[in-house]
Amino acid sequence: MRRVEAGERALRESEERYALAMEGANEGHWDWDLVTDRLFMSPKMKVLAGLSSDTAIPTRSAWRAHVVIHPDDVPRFEAAVTDHLEGRTPQYECEYRVRQPDGAWHWLLARGRCLRDATGKPYRFVGSTIDVSAQKQAELDKERLEAQLRQSQKMEAMGTLAGGIAHDFNNILGAIVGYGELAQQRSAPNTPLRRYLDNVMHAAGRAKALVERILGFSRSGLAERVPVNVQSIVEETLELLRASMPAGIRLESRLEAGNAAVTGDPTHLHQVAMNLSTNALQAMERGGGVLGVTLERLEVREPGSHSRGTLSPGPHVRLIVSDTGTGIRPAVLERMFDPFFTTKGVGSGTGLGLSLVHGIVTDLGGAIDVTTKPGEGTRFEVWLPVAGEAAKPTVVADRELPRGSHQRVMIVDDEPALVELCEEILADVGYEPVGFRSSTQALQRFRADPA
């Protein structure tokens, strides 16, 4: 009798040690009798599966009836069990998602093996399960950061290339625009020559706008940064949009950022708001809809990753531009921030709008979120860090440029056409320009004759 009691006590102690070990490992374990379908599940295993620890689960069939496995994971889950029971895998291992009481999906990693009789037929299946949701999220975060790094490197390389080409082209274009303006001033109005020159200047204006976009994308054209009242920029953008908004599209705006300021270039912030709004209007040009524009001031409590970029804690402004248009296809969503990528027809777009937005927002330390559903619309969220406050700018009336009185002005540029153009313009307003194509020559001449 004493031996029996001692054996039972030893068994209980062994079971308690095993239960404590499993609890310490934060694992759930299960034991499935394949002959009777009876199933033992530890309390931890029930909790991992989204059940209460005291839920009665007598059989494996009852477990499958109670537990909700993600539909995308069911085929893989069932195949892993079948493959092991039929001897195609030496042990069972499977990752799958189960729904928790709060509706969230948790990733579980299950490992186990079956016991077989002398004929090789399985009669018992035992194993353990752990929650790997944190590891899965870490993997997703790592993949997203790696994708952002690759995108950043690609954008930087393309920006360097495009910026170099645009800089040289800008010098050539400067001469075309400058001499074109001089020719316009000296041509009689309402003549064929004036009409030709006007058309030339119109085309040159389009070329200039394209070059400015390329330089903005490559970040080589960034101006000096100043505190900018973001709300005034968005208000100005909406005023321009209202004047040309297609029929059938309604604008709904809510601007509540007050005097929140972002340190940047007003022109670039205007480009962000205008490009996003223009894209939204074009997504609704056939069927009409609602253009939503919201600007608000928010406090970011914790660091976080977004579709494009990451944010640090602190005050931010969030610009939301939404439409009820066609939405964005997944294939386009992956590439829409790539420079020169466009879904528009030839002559209808440059493919620089969103890449320019991405470059400006990234350079300002912000982030972009994009959510879209094909056929329902798209929502862009732009987050920018707040740098204090700034009052709305006052309108300054244009003043006539002062004329010179034969003061000597030195001009230095390695582009001969630009040197000659500047000489023409300055001479025309009363100065005596002296042009040089070499900085060394200009310095020698200045030292020899400072006056």
Features:
451 residues, alpha+beta, Beta-Lactamase, Helix Hairpins, Heat Shock Protein 90, 4 domains, 5-stranded antiparallel sheet, 12 helices, 24% strand, elongated
Brief rundown of the structure:
This protein has about 450 residues and is α+β, with helices and mostly antiparallel strands. Helices cover about 45% and strands about 25% of the residues. It has four domains: about 25-130, Beta-Lactamase, CATH 3.30.450.20; about 140-220, Helix Hairpins; about 225-395, Heat Shock Protein 90 (2-Layer Sandwich), CATH 3.30.565.10; about 410-450, no CATH class.
CATH superfamily assignment of the largest domain?
Answer: Histidine kinase-like ATPase, C-terminal domain
- The second-level CATH architecture of the largest domain is 2-Layer Sandwich
In percent terms, what proportion of residues is strand?
Answer: 15-25%
Instruction: Give the terminus-to-terminus CA distance.
Output: 122 Å
How many distinct beta strands?
16
Total DSSP helices: 12
Helix content: 40-55%
Return the average pLDDT rounded to an integer.
Answer: 83
Q: How many structural domains in the coordinates?
A: 4
Uncertain runs: none
